[in-house]
TrEMBL record:
InterPro entries: Copia-like_N. It comes from Lactuca sativa (Garden lettuce). Residues 35-64 form the Retrotransposon Copia-like N-terminal domain. This is Retrotransposon Copia-like N-terminal domain-containing protein. Residues 323-342 are annotated as: Disordered. PANTHER family: GAG-PRE-INTEGRASE DOMAIN, GAG-POLYPEPTIDE OF LTR COPIA-TYPE-RELATED (PTHR34222:SF96), GAG_PRE-INTEGRS DOMAIN-CONTAINING PROTEIN (PTHR34222). It comes from the Eukaryota. Residues 331-342 have a biased composition (Polar residues).
Length: 342
């Protein structure tokens, strides 16, 4: 017979109930998951899933009762029972821990908590049902709105469970009919909280015969939301395009900009085509200077008469010609015969 040290005795045999692999700590994600007065259903669901994963659910549901005193597995059973009790205590609030920490078995602890907190809490059920009627889509997406409602529905169902038919050989299918009725009520709750912009799809759903399921109604509203988002995006892009085309430059007769931003007048920016930058900047400066000269000329003509202005211009031209040909001003012919003439 092989010898096993006490450290590894829990791994022997086909029964993995006492395996080391299933004894890792059960971690509570946050304090809000601890058992309180009003969240027993959620807490029970989380604990059940965790205990199934660790192969320890039998210590809670009674399928793994305490072994007899002469059982060779009694020590292992007590060790696992103590470990599960520790998980249970650590998953409750401080005020609750003191009332269950002296329970002998994990099963006794479970039954005590279920007796105190597992019964239907009328005030809490009332608050949950009021929450269903007050939840509105508003700025939420259709998916977020549905998820928020679904969490409240599931909590109500866990607290106020509908009895199932237990008749032997029952053919009335009452359970299925009750499920359909509950689904219809939830569909009404879902449609009530939608915004007015979904009135068309709500009318479509309510006018259908037979009435679609909650899942089908959710998908119809979700598709309507997606189509609405696509239309809004296309409308915004079209408006941007129209606004750009509406800009008209009275100088270059082109679209896309106004006269105060015309590059031909103010000069081309550095990021413009570098190959033609110098030429285009020069064109812009010349046109700007010509425009300035025209404005100056108009202002001068407003100060003197047109006849005086023309005489002044002739005198300036004559003076310019004389400066360019100084010899033309010498009227004495003898000067040309002077020996000093070069």
């Amino acid at each position: 017979m092989p010898h096993y040290s006490p450290k590894y005795v829990v791994n022997t045999g086909p029964n993995l109930l006492y395996s080391n692999a299933s004894t890792a700590n059960l971690r509570i994600k946050s304090n809000k998951n601890l058992l309180r007065d009003v969240n027993y259903s959620d807490w029970e669901n989380e604990m059940t899933n965790a205990l199934y994963a660790k192969n320890k659910i039998g210590f809670f549901d009674g399928t793994q009762p305490m072994l007899k005193e002469d059982s060779i597995e009694l020590t292992n059973w007590k060790r696992c029972n103590a470990m599960v009790r520790g998980w249970l205590v650590s998953s409750t609030e401080k005020e609750i821990k003191g009332s269950v920490k002296y329970a002998t078995t994990a099963r006794d602890m479970w039954l005590d908590l279920k007796e105190r907190f597992g019964k239907e809490n009328a005030p809490w059920v009332y608050e949950l049902r009021r929450a269903v009627t007050s939840i509105q889509k508003n700025n939420l997406t259709v998916s977020s709105y549905y998820t928020k409602l679904r969490s409240v529905w599931d909590e109500i169902q866990s607290i106020s469970q509908i009895p199932a038919c237990s008749c032997t050989g029952c053919t009335c299918r009452i359970n299925k009919e009750i499920a359909k009725l509950r689904d219809k009520e939830r569909l009404y709750d879902y449609l009530v909280g939608l915004d007015e912009e979904f009135n068309a799809v709500k009318t479509q759903i309510l006018s259908s015969s037979p009435l679609p399921t909650l899942t089908a109604g959710y998908h119809l509203v979700s598709q309507d939301e997606q189509q609405r988002q696509i239309r809004v995006a296309l409308h915004d892009n079209r408006n941007k395009s129209i606004k750009s085309e509406d800009k008209w430059c009275t100088h270059c007769k082109k679209t896309g900009h106004m006269v105060d931003g015309c590059f031909e007048l103010i000069g081309y920016l550095e990021w413009w085509n570098t190959k033609n930058t110098n030429m285009k900047n020069q064109t812009g400066r010349q046109k700007t200077q010509a425009k300035a000269a025209t404005v100056t000329e108009d202002k001068v003509t407003q100060l003197i008469t047109k006849e005086d202005y023309e005489n002044l211009m002739r005198m300036l031209k004559s003076a310019k010609v004389n400066e360019e040909n100084p010899k033309a001003n010498m009227s004495d012919k003898s000067c040309w015969n002077s020996p000093y003439n070069l």
